[in-house]
Amino acid sequence: xxxxxxxxxxxxxxxxxxxxxxxxxxxxxxxxxxxxxxxxxxxxxxxxxxxxxxxxxxxxxxxxxxxxxxxxxxxxxxxxxxxxxxxxxxxxxxxxxxxxxxxxxxxxxxxxxxxxxxxxxxxxxxxxxxxxxxxxxxxxxxxxxxxxxxxxxxxxxxxxxxxxxxxxxxxxxxxxxxxxxxxxxxxxxxxxxxxxxxxxxxxxxxxxxxxxxxxxxxxxxxxxxxxxxxxxx
Length: 233
Fold this sequence. Notes:
single chain, mainly alpha, about 0% strand, globular
């Protein structure tokens, strides 16, 4: 929690809510959720519902963070932003269908399997989250976009954590109690690593654009102009 608190302090001191409001909300909520879970750990029922409510809100905010980074990447290329946004929405719909299919196929029968049902839903949501992050990196590579350091760090840290979470929730039903304990340790280490990545990229000075990136930016402007002309027809 100390690392989360440090991240919260840095975000607030840098007034990052003006530039990255969703990521700021995501980080602050994760910090407050950790404090709350720690405070109610001796109350099993409250802990159970509090944990899963926190997980749900965190995943939803994670989706918002991905879209926030996505928009920032195309912020100076209006036409490409419109085209990429359309592709992004199609990707969301496609991944949502995959998630719903997984819920339908793996959903346990009977009211006594509430825990298993929740894990299936989380697995589906994590698949969507990881899929969107993969789309973000593929889109960046395809268009030759220049990442700002903070945005790349946010996407990298979130991608690492979401991938480990997806792996953990997929394996949880296949391992015993000892295996679950190991997975919990791996999840904690992954989240801590993500926090350190975010801290590192937020504290590091922004890298200046190198001369090698100037031709790429010129080509990107040409693509933007071509898409704009296509849309205007």
